[in-house]
């Protein structure tokens, strides 16, 4: 079993920044794929970003490209999401996801492709 724990959410003003962290522990594999989804109240869970095990491959939802950056520290089994230029539409519960390998593009945005999920961390952007 793998445990995934997010941190770093909070309340920020529009235009501000936050950095989310996600640590994986337990029966982890070497260099897993990790990423982020988010879900706003009353809306579906949407892909935000993902990063491959070696960090050489990344993918972002169009809505966050140029504003969010995903990175990782494999020595710490941790992935980060640096969020800049936040706006009210970014308000959501952010979930970290984990799976053993990179997901083909045709399925990458499907949350069911990821074997493990965290409990989520709330990000609220005030306008």
Which range best describes the helical content: under 10%, 10-25%, 25-40%, 40-55%, 55-70% or over 70%?
A: under 10%
pLDDT < 50 stretches: none
Q: Largest sheet, described in full?
A: 7 strands, mixed
Strand-residue proportion: over 45%
Shape: globular
Number of helices: 0
Query: SSE string, helix = H, strand = E?
Result: EEEEEEEEEEE
Span of the ends, CA to CA: 40 Å
The residue-averaged pLDDT reads 96
Count of extended strands: 11
Radius of gyration: 13 Å
SS-based class: mainly beta
What can you see in these coordinates?
The protein is mostly beta strands and 127 residues long. It is built from no helices and 11 strands. The strands form 2 sheets. Strands 2, 4, 5, 6, 9, 10 and 11 form a 7-stranded mixed sheet that branches. The protein has a 4-stranded antiparallel sheet with strand order 1-3-8-7, with no helix packed on it. Strand 7 and strand 8 form a beta hairpin.
Fold blueprint:
Blueprint (H helix, E strand, L loop, with lengths): L1 E6 L2 E4 L4 E9 L6 E7 L5 E7 L6 E3 L7 E6 L4 E6 L8 E8 L16 E2 L3 E6 L1
Parallel strand pairs: 2-11
Antiparallel strand pairs: 1-3, 3-8, 4-5, 4-9, 5-6, 7-8, 9-10, 9-11
Name the descriptors.
127 residues, mainly beta, 0% helix, 50% strand, globular
């Amino acid at each position: 079993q793998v445990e995934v724990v997010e941190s770093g959410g909070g309340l920020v003003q529009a235009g501000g920044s936050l950095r989310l962290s996600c640590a994986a522990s337990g029966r982890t594999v070497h260099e897993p794929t990790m990423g982020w989804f988010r879900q706003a109240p009353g809306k579906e869970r949407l892909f935000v970003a993902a990063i491959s095990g070696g960090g050489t491959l990344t993918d972002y939802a169009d809505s966050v490209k140029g504003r969010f950056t995903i990175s990782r520290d494999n020595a710490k089994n941790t992935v980060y999401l640096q969020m800049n230029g936040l706006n009210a539409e970014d308000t959501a519960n952010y979930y970290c996801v984990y799976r053993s390998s990179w997901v083909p593009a045709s399925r990458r945005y499907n949350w069911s492709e990821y074997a493990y999920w965290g409990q989520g961390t709330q990000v609220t952007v005030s306008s």
